[in-house]
């Protein structure tokens, strides 16, 4: 299954001055050769997989590239985005739909796995392509809620009064224009049983320009509680621009949480995990979940065995106050909630 091509938000002439985030989005690095040239890593070219890049193309915003260390083939941010030949190796147990998303579909773009919460796959678009992504094989073309079809998703939510929290996910829901998000939340106004709106997004971290005045005004105007879960995996992902974006989200009334994935070669040490928690808290974000990798085809080289994951988590708990220790969990297809390890 080939994911939908990146649907870059349209940039009109009249928007060009006002919407820097769209420009930054469009200027993302898409060629492994350019990325390796920028980072002065010509030797890594031999390990790049054309097949993996064809199935799930490289895409990384230039601002995120600027946070990578030049000359370091093991840079933890680079490792998250570079398609390597390790992805081509089939490994038993690593499949296309590891978390049962396709079976959980309630209406077009609605995943209703947990009783009180419904997740809307709002869009297939992302500003960055993360190699470990559990939805890298998801058939977005058929399954997004926003593609002119908010109505179906809203009808589904209206028919399920037990749903008190709606999650917008994707892809990345903040890749949608703010007007499109506002169209959805206007529809939510007729559904008083939905008390919380949660956004799962990597954009405030990978493209902080997205957190612009229009987005903050929309957030601040929400009548229900808003939770924004950012997805940062390493302390180096946060810089001053990200701090500003996160401060803006907080000031607009959002509660900020982080969900990280435990990744071999990225954050598989107590030091890296502790630094991430400390850095997140400095930016006003509470570490919420540390996820075991979903066993998705092409991602086996990122996996940390459960015993090692538990030992890392225990090491983290011994070092940090409890509120900085994320819960170590795994998603199990068909389970009524995330499963603690
Ligand atoms: S931003 Fe999230 S959905 Fe998009 S590629 Fe990365 S992990 Fe996957």
TrEMBL record:
Binding of [4Fe-4S] cluster, residues: 126, 130, 133
UniProt keywords, alphabetically: 4Fe-4S, Iron, Iron-sulfur, Isomerase, Metal-binding, Pyridoxal phosphate, S-adenosyl-L-methionine
Sites bearing N6-(pyridoxal phosphate)lysine, chain numbering: 338
Record's catalysed reaction(s): L-lysine = D-beta-lysine
InterPro entries in alphabetical order: Aldolase_TIM, EpmB, Lys_aminomutase/Glu_NH3_mut, rSAM, rSAM_sf
Cofactor(s) annotated in UniProt: pyridoxal 5'-phosphate; [4Fe-4S] cluster
Domain Radical SAM core: 112-327
Domain of life: Bacteria
GO molecular function, one term: metal ion binding
A Pfam family recorded for this sequence: Radical_SAM
NCBIfam families in UniProt: EFP_modif_epmB, KamA family radical SAM protein
Recorded family membership: Belongs to the radical SAM superfamily. KamA family.
The protein, known as: L-lysine 2,3-aminomutase
Source species of the chain: Arenimonas fontis
Taxonomic placement: Bacteria, Pseudomonadati, Pseudomonadota, Gammaproteobacteria, Lysobacterales
């Amino acid at each position: 299954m080939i994911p939908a091509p990146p649907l870059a938000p349209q940039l009109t002439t009249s928007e060009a001055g006002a919407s820097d985030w769209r420009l930054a989005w469009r200027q993302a690095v898409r060629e492994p050769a350019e990325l390796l040239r920028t980072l002065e890593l010509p030797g890594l070219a031999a390990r790049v997989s054309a097949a993996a890049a064809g199935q799930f193309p490289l895409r990384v915003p230039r601002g995120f590239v600027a946070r990578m260390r030049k000359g370091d083939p093991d840079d933890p941010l680079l490792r998250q985005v570079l398609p390597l030949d390790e992805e081509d190796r089939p490994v038993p147990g690593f499949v296309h739909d590891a978390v049962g998303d396709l079976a959980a579909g309630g209406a077009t773009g609605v995943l209703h796995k947990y009783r009180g919460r419904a997740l809307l796959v709002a869009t297939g678009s992302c500003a960055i392509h993360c190699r470990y992504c559990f939805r890298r094989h998801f058939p977005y073309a058929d399954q997004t809620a926003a593609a002119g079809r908010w109505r179906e998703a809203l009808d589904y939510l209206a028919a399920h009064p037990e749903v008190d929290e709606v999650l917008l996910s994707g892809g990345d829901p903040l890749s949608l224009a703010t007007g499109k998000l506002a169209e959805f939340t206007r529809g939510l106004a007729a559904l008083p049983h939905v008390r919380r709106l949660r956004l799962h997004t990597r954009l405030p971290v990978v493209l902080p320009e997205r957190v612009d005045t229009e987005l903050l005004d929309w957030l601040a105007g929400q009548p229900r509680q808003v939770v924004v879960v950012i997805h940062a995996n390493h302390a180096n992902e946060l810089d001053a621009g990200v701090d500003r974006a996160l401060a803006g989200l907080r000031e607009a009334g959002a509660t900020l949480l982080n969900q990280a994935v435990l990744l071999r070669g990225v954050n598989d040490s107590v030091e890296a995990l502790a630094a991430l928690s400390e850095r997140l808290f400095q930016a006003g974000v509470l570490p919420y979940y540390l996820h075991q990798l979903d066993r998705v085809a092409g991602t086996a080289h990122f996996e940390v065995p459960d015993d090692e994951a538990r030992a890392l988590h225990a090491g983290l708990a011994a070092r940090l106050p409890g509120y900085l220790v994320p819960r170590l969990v795994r998603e199990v297809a068909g389970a009524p909630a995330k499963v603690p390890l």
